[in-house]
């Protein structure tokens, strides 16, 4: 069954002023759509491949475009219109199990955000910053992946795209400004759901 581009759960301009309509349209309609189309093409070619050499030759395309599709599908739903702009619930981490888990590990919510930003800004080239649940320790941890690699070592709670196409048209090369701004539109209700599902063994990509 072919993969399809998921609809956004909000309008393209709903995350303004923190993420512009122009970025959201290009990011969703062009970049994510390209990952979906390229993944479908790679899977179709893999299904027709008749030799190990052909199948091995398609692994990079499957990983890159499959990861891009997985990561962006998660990314759209872990964003929401900002509470500070009176548009929605974005940016508000309510009291609950996830907040307790974050403060237990990082000391405070503010300290967590600082550490997340520092770690994610330190990615060389393109990649993703993640808050994930370690399936062994059951603790939340900050980690990163390169390029479009999906998060496989942890269960993803939130992911932040640090590819230039996610921010350059608005923040130019100042990653720190983008990372500071995006906390205003993080959908912590969705993150809470993912966290509790992960603890219960119910999380699925």
From TrEMBL:
| Name recorded for this polypeptide | Superoxide dismutase
Residues reported to bind Mn(2+): 27, 72, 161, 165
State the InterPro entries in the record. Answer: Fe/Mn_Superoxide_Dismutase, Mn/Fe_SOD, Mn/Fe_SOD_BS, Mn/Fe_SOD_C, Mn/Fe_SOD_N, Mn/Fe_SOD_N_sf, SOD_C_sf
Q: Which PROSITE patterns match?
A: SOD_MN
What does the similarity note say? Belongs to the iron/manganese superoxide dismutase family.
Give the Manganese/iron superoxide dismutase N-terminal domain ranges.
3-80
Cellular component, GO annotation: mitochondrion
Its cofactor is: Mn(2+)
Free-text function comment from the UniProt entry: Destroys radicals which are normally produced within the cells and which are toxic to biological systems.
Does Metal-binding show up as a keyword for this record? yes
Q: Which reaction does it catalyse?
A: 2 superoxide + 2 H(+) = H2O2 + O2
Alphabetized, the UniProt keywords read: Antioxidant, Manganese, Metal-binding, Oxidoreductase
Question: What domain of life does the native source organism fall in?
Answer: Eukaryota
Nucleus in keyword set: no
EC number, UniProt record = 1.15.1.1
Enzyme class name: oxidoreductase
Residues covered by the Manganese/iron superoxide dismutase C-terminal domain: 95-194
Q: Name one Pfam family in it.
A: Sod_Fe_C
What GO molecular functions are on record for this protein? manganese ion binding; superoxide dismutase activity
């Amino acid at each position: 069954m072919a993969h399809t581009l998921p609809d956004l759960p909000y309008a393209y301009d709903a995350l303004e002023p923190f993420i512009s309509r122009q970025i959201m349209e290009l990011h969703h309609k062009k970049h994510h759509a390209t990952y979906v189309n390229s993944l479908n093409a790679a899977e179709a070619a893999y299904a027709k491949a008749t030799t190990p050499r052909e199948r091995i030759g398609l692994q990079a395309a499957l990983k890159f475009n499959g990861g891009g599709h997985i990561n962006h599908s998660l990314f759209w739903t872990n964003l929401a219109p900002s509470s500070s702009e009176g548009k929605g619930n974005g940016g508000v981490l309510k009291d609950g199990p996830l907040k307790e888990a974050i403060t237990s590990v990082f000391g405070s919510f503010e300290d967590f955000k600082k550490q997340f930003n520092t770690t994610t800004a330190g990615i060389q080239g393109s990649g993703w910053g993640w808050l994930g649940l370690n399936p062994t320790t059951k603790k939340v941890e900050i980690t990163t992946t390169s390029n479009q690699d999906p998060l496989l070592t942890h269960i993803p709670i939130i992911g932040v795209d640090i590819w230039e196409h996610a921010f350059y048209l608005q923040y130019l090369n100042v990653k720190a400004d983008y990372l500071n701004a995006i906390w205003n539109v993080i959908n912590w209700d969705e993150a809470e759901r993912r966290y509790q599902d992960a603890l219960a063994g119910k999380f699925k990509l």
